[in-house]
Design brief:
Lysozyme-like, six-stranded mixed sheet, 2 domains, 5 helices, six-stranded antiparallel sheet, mainly beta
């Protein structure tokens, strides 16, 4: 876990081209980049069809779609993640939606299922509205894949995997993004910004995305399941034989999905197969257990995620998961491989610490011209004695962007605070804890 250094300046404001000159190398400014050329590797079938950038209400300067203009990474806002999505609609429909300013959403790229054709809609230096969490939007690129997640391999074709992997390799090399599961994320791993927003977060590309095959294509294979127990297990079930029950539900009407390979490992409240699945307070506020509904991510760990061991009983392993121990059936060589990373636990004297969905700065970091982004604890806490995997730590930041012609003062400014947060692998999703609240054990 490498700390990201705060820019060495007295001011907490980092404006265009000021903070990361050492990181951007020869990357040209947005003004010097071709406006209508797709950013893709040579030989990949790729085109540029711009997403909408337009006002939707002339009387409201904040009513516009579908992305924010920026100059990443020259403006200090670094790109550190690539987020994998599926469209839940056809390729053409997704493109049309991103070209409608009233939709309010976009992605940098969309990939067609049948042949892997790529359409870029938002330049990589701009901030697409794709993840449902603005902090992750600030620091990521979003790639949509044509598909409906409950239909599995019908949509996630080899042509799509191949094209996506070529694109990701190109983007990762260009922006120095590590090819690992800490930085190549799924939409379903992005946390909600507020307690009320967690339950509505998306869960794509879902259980039938073959992460192991995808990372093979990226040239960065995931580890294979080992026979020795590890203090930091990485979830790596074999996709072809990991057939877990899943149901597609509309209201209370549910249909069992056809048995097929998946990336899912279910987590139980006790070390036995008939024990209830763990529940998530956002999805089950009444305390009821998790379910096998495809939309219920409460009790699912996914291929490539890593956690910290909380206990063992026979062939079962408990991991710290969302503020509680959660048990997975982990016979040698089937589910987990040794992982690594910093171990994070609450500081002595704290009975429990809050968990956040974004790494925004403290209010005092903002000048009067920029409204502070709210830092709201989620409904989770980490009790004393629990241990989580620290992914990355750094100074909290917020990129202030409004519509270009709205005449907003200090538009396109990165605010960097004194507050430091640590990103952790928390439950099915990522989360943040305040560095002042935790000890780093190793």
């Amino acid at each position: 876990m490498v700390p990201r250094r705060r820019p060495p300046a007295v001011t907490l404001l980092v404006t265009a081209a000021a903070a990361v000159a050492m990181l951007i190398g020869s990357e040209p400014s947005a003004a010097a980049r071709p406006a209508h050329e797709a950013e893709c590797p040579v030989g990949l079938a790729c085109r540029f069809a711009p997403a909408a950038y337009a006002r939707t209400d002339p009387s409201d300067p904040d009513a516009y779609g579908d992305y924010d203009r920026a100059d990443r990474p020259r403006d200090g806002d670094d790109i550190r993640y690539i987020v994998i999505h599926d469209t839940e609609e056809s390729y053409d429909s997704a493109i049309a939606r991103f070209q409608d300013p009233h939709s309010g959403v976009s992605a940098h790229y969309v990939i067609r299922s049948s042949d892997g054709q790529v359409t870029q809609l938002v330049h990589t230096w701009d901030i697409a509205h794709h993840a449902g969490n603005y902090w992750f939007n600030m620091h990521s690129l979003g790639i949509e894949h044509e598909g409906v997640l409950v239909d599995g391999a019908r949509w996630y074709t080899e042509a799509m995997y191949q094209a996506s992997a070529r694109l990701v390799r190109y983007l990762a090399a260009r922006y120095h993004i590590p090819l690992d599961r800490e930085h190549i994320l799924s939409h379903e791993e992005i946390p909600g910004l507020t307690p009320g927003g967690v339950a509505g977060m998306h869960y794509d590309p879902g259980p039938y995305w073959d992460w192991a095959h995808y990372f093979d294509l990226l040239g960065a294979p995931l580890p294979t399941a080992g026979v020795s127990a590890a203090p930091v297990p990485t979830i790596v079930p074999r996709f072809d034989i990991d057939i877990e029950p899943l149901r597609s539900c509309v209201g209370e009407a549910c249909t069992d999905l056809p048995p097929q390979g998946s990336n899912v490992v279910y987590l139980h409240t006790e070390p036995r197969a008939d024990a209830p699945l763990v529940g998530d307070p956002a999805l089950h506020p009444d305390g009821s257990p998790g379910t096998t509904r495809v939309a219920d991510w409460s009790a699912r760990a996914v291929t490539g995620q890593s956690f910290v061991v909380a206990g063992r009983s026979g062939e079962w392993t408990a991991i710290w998961f969302g503020g509680r121990p959660a048990w997975l059936d982990d016979p040698p060589g089937r589910v987990s491989a040794p992982g690594h990373g910093a171990l994070i636990t609450p500081r002595p004297g704290r009975s429990a610490i809050p968990v956040y969905g974004a790494a925004y700065p403290e209010d005092s970091a903002y000048p009067p011209t920029i409204p502070a982004a709210a830092v709201v604890p989620l409904r989770y806490t980490i009790p004393a004695g629990q241990v989580y995997l620290g992914v990355e730590r750094g100074f909290a930041d917020y990129y202030y962007a409004r519509f270009d012609s709205a005449d907003a003062q200090d538009n396109h400014t990165l605010v960097v605070g004194d507050r430091r947060l640590v990103e952790i692998s928390f439950n099915h999703r990522r989360a943040f804890v305040d560095a002042a609240d935790v000890l780093i054990l190793r």
